[in-house]
Amino acid sequence: MNRFALLLASLILLPALAPAAVLNVEFKFTPFKGNPEKEKTVESVPGTARIFLNNVPYAEQEVRKQSLPVMFEEREVSSSVWLPVESAGAAVRKGRNKIRIEFDPADAKAAYRARLSWATVTDQVTRQSTGPGSGSATNMADSGKEDKSVTGKVVFEREFTADFAADRPWHHYPAVTALSDADRSALAEMLKKRVELFKPGFAGLYKSLEERGVEPERVAKVRKAKCLDAAYGAGVRLSAPPPGELEFVTTGNPEVVVRRKGRELFTLDPKAFERIKGDEMQMCAGMTLSMLYAPQLVVVRSPGGAWEVAY
């Protein structure tokens, strides 16, 4: 083969040899009793799972006792907690990240097994033949799992790369290691002003959705549906917590978590919410308000000293 033919062949093969792009990373966690290597089902262990992303408390989920199927030749246990990292939005950095999952069982003295599994989602499909006329296809890669046999609390940690994540300016803000009385007062005032944005017109709330990275198309649909108008018309009102009920969690990062002691950060009258007419309108209003007035807020302080809502 002459040099020209060899070069042409390499150019033809080049696209096929291009590495797959990673679109997402998925983590699954399950605490269970039973033997998935031999049994068709196992039983999940009740308790509370807490997810931390880059040391920031991200979510808390109750795990209930139930029968879980064991699937596929890999003996995969159905998950109790599932996190597709891409859905975490601004909580994920472009590049290196760390996830931590802590689980506290309802019965601290009971022995059980816990499993953390992971896989990347790519833009290429891998096909495998399993016999004449049969096979499998997947866009998952770099899968793995870690099992632990424990009694009481269990903790899993794993680093992962998320080059698909957006690089946001505040990701590079200085870390906040302590809060002054002035900071606490400023954050309490921020919450009060955030509640005041819930008023007809809702311009400030639509802007806040855009700043959170919600797709413009989704924001436009919320505007068109007028579900915030419907909620306000039904009598839905929100209230911010008194300063004395606030608690603040520093993370060693720019993010500071703002919570309310013993309850959700913002409160509303559920009876007023039930007066919103139509299931779709209720769902639209509920999902939108849950994004804007979450059980906790994560805030950051700019180099100039101003506080901003990160997510």
Describe this structure in words.
By secondary structure, this protein is of the alpha+beta class. About 25% of the residues lie in helices and about 40% in strands. The protein has seven helices and 17 strands. Strands 1, 2, 5, 6, 7, 9 and 10 form a seven-stranded antiparallel β-sheet that branches. A four-stranded antiparallel β-sheet has the order 4-3-8-11, with no helix packed on it. A hairpin with a 2-residue loop joins β9 and β10. α5 crosses α7. The chain is globular and about 65 Å long. The chain starts with a helix and ends with a strand. The N terminus is likely disordered.
Structural class: alpha+beta
Beta-strand share of residues: 35-45%
N- to C-terminal distance: 59 Å
Radius of gyration: 24 Å
Mean pLDDT: 90
Proportion in helices: 10-25%
Q: For the report, how would you describe the main beta sheet?
A: 7 strands, antiparallel
Order of helices and strands: HEEEEEEEEEEEHHHHEEEEHHEE
Shape: globular
Strand element count? 17
Number of helical elements: 7
- Stretches with pLDDT under 50, minimum 5 residues: 3-16
